[in-house]
Every structure is written in C-alpha cells, then in structure tokens.
C-alpha cells in the first residue's frame, strides 16, 4: 500500500463515524433518514425547499442503490402535521427522478413496495411521527426492539443518517437502526459537523441570538451556553423573549399570555425566572415590539405593556441595538426568527438582524424556519454557514452531544471491531 493510501486509511480508522465513502454502496438496499420537515402554508404548500436541496448530494451518491427514505413533518397536534405526499412530489422535481410516496411506514404495503424496488429507485415512506413510538426517548438498543425496526431492518444493507437537524432527538428513526445495520453519516451530516465544529470554542466570545417558537429548547440551550462559555452573551426574540418577560413579572396582555399557555410554555416560567436570576446580566430582552393592531403593524414599548394585540416581531429600537451588537461580534450564532416571518410586515426584525450578521466576523445561522428568511433576504452567500438544523445546530454549538451522532460513533466502533 502506498504512503498516501496508508495515510488515508489511518485517517479513516481514526474518524469517529463512518461516511458514505467508507462503504461499498452500489446495488445495496439503503435506508436513509432525511429531514424534510418544512414550513407549509394552510393549503399544504411547502414554503421552503432548503432541506430538500440539502439532501440531493447524498441521494445522487446513492443513485445505484435502492433508496428508502424515512422522514417526518411537524409534530402531533400542529396544523402542518401531515402526510409526506407533497414532500415526495417536491423531492421528485428537485432530484429529477420519481420519488414514490407510500402511505405506510412498516406495514405490509410498505414492505411489499420495498420488495418490488429496482436499483436506482427512491421511495419515501409515510411521516414517521404517525407511529407513536417514534418520539419516545429511548436508547438505540431499546428502539431496535420495536415493531418498526424489527419489521424494516431485514430489508436493508446499510442505514444512512443524513438528518443532521433531527440528530438532537433520540428518536426511533434517528438512532433505532444503528445497532442492527452498518450505519454511516450522509453528506449533510458530514458538512454540518465540519462547519459547526468551528463554532464550538469555549474561549471565544460567542453572541447567540435566540428566537423562534421552540422556547423550551432555547431555555435549555441558554443554560448550557451560559454555564460553559463565560464569554458568551444572549440576545432574545420570539417566544422565548415573551416567556422571559412573563417570568420577570411583566404582563404581556391576554392574547400573548394565551399563546404561551396554549403552546405549553407557561410551564417553563419558573425555569425561565431562575435563569434570569442566575445569568440575567448576560441575557438581553427586547425593549419594544411590533404588534398587530387590527391588521396594522404598530410599535409598542415594553413599558406600554399589557396590550390587547399579538406581539409578532421585535420593535424598531430593539432592531437597532441588537444589530449593533451583532455587527461587532467575533462569532454570532443565530437561531430561530425574531418574528412571524410568514407575514410580510413582521419579517423586518429577522431581516435586519440577518443583515447585521453578514458584518460579523463569523456568522453561523441555525436552520429550521429562519433559513427561509435567509433566502428571502438574499443573504445566503454573505453568511459563513447556514445550517439545515435549528435545535440540532444550536445544541451542538452549545456543547451538547447529539444522540444521532453518538449512535453513529458507536456503530462505527462496532463495525471496526467486527472487521
Ligand atoms: C427541526 O425542524 O428542527 C427538525 O425537523 C426537528 O423537528 P422537531 O423540533 O419537531 O423535533
């Protein structure tokens, strides 16, 4: 073996997880976890195809395989918790070949469809979250004993995890196949770990801007970041800002408290209050908001609360002060939009903060719904990295290990032992 190949081999041995190039794939039957979870309008139209596009490089590498895709859309109880049919249509268009949608996950219809596949075929199974055991917090070994894994695993030679954005969830379709099948990281997971790895430096001052609707995730992330990196600071927007203001004893007005109640966030008010007590000096809250007053955007200062109108964005003064901090940051990490970006008038805050991020030393943008705004504002190429992951990216950047990645590492160790 020549020196170059020896070095390459050594690097492979040392890499913690396997990738597509580590395994002979042609003619194999491959199960791929992708993340196609995307914003949808009330008519069921997919509003952002970023995650679909992100998977194309992996799918093209698997063009000589029989490829079965596992994916989810939204969560039970949400308006956009729906079937994967529109996703198969959109993916077919982007991939340039038919992606067959099967309205079943592991029943006889799914299994007979898999049996009939030819090399080069791609099939998308039904929303995995329609199966109640999907989201149970279990170990990979426990998930591996479920009906879903036991029924599906025998049909496959390899499991590919290409769903970086769900790697923070210890869900069945993310980790449950790894104890049974040779398991490798897809191109998306590889790319994300490469870029986001640059942002996990505990001695660098990192400015985090946290917004969006998943406020319970943001609280966890804040606890981690503030505890681990003494030079980090947090700017808050979206529902997490509302929750923190509520926890500070500020009455937001009935419609806004009702949003916190109906999304289950009021349960986190105590945790939010403790966080403010411990790290209040490093957490900044908005000083004003854009509210929806009978269909018109109006600016309301925190001192003017409560108001009987819905808060839908950060206000003008907050945009200015937050932008200044972001522009001068060495590393800025933004996750979650600052307002309701689906509505024209309430995109402004998110756009302004993203524009400011293009001037920061290094800008890492958590994916999820904020990446739609990145494209809308035409800023994708002026930012260092736009992740496909929202929660996953931010958990990784806050120093947490991700169950999906850990499972790939354990699978790689097993694979090497068996050789
Ligand atoms: C995301 O959009 O962040 C991922 O698809 C995970 O979705 P979840 O937060 O509903 O688990």
SSE topology sketch:
Blueprint: H1 3-14, E1 29-33, H2 50-54, H3 56-61, E2 66-70, H4 85-95, E3 99-101, H5 108-115, E4 122-124, H6 140-143, H7 147-152, E5 158-161, H8 172-175, E6 183-185, H9 187-196, E7 206-210, H10 215-228, E8 233-236, H11 238-247, H12 254-262, H13 269-279, E9 283-284, E10 288-293, E11 296-301, E12 310-314, H14 316-327, E13 331-335, H15 348-357, E14 362-365, H16 370-376, E15 385-386, H17 391-397, H18 403-418
Parallel strand pairs: 1-2, 1-5, 2-4, 3-4, 5-6, 7-8, 7-13, 8-9, 13-14, 14-15
Antiparallel strand pairs: 10-11, 10-12
Helix pairs in contact: 10-11, 10-13, 10-17, 11-13, 14-15
The chain binds 3-phosphoglyceric acid.
3-phosphoglyceric acid is lined by residues 35, 37, 75, 165-166, 169, 368, 390-391.
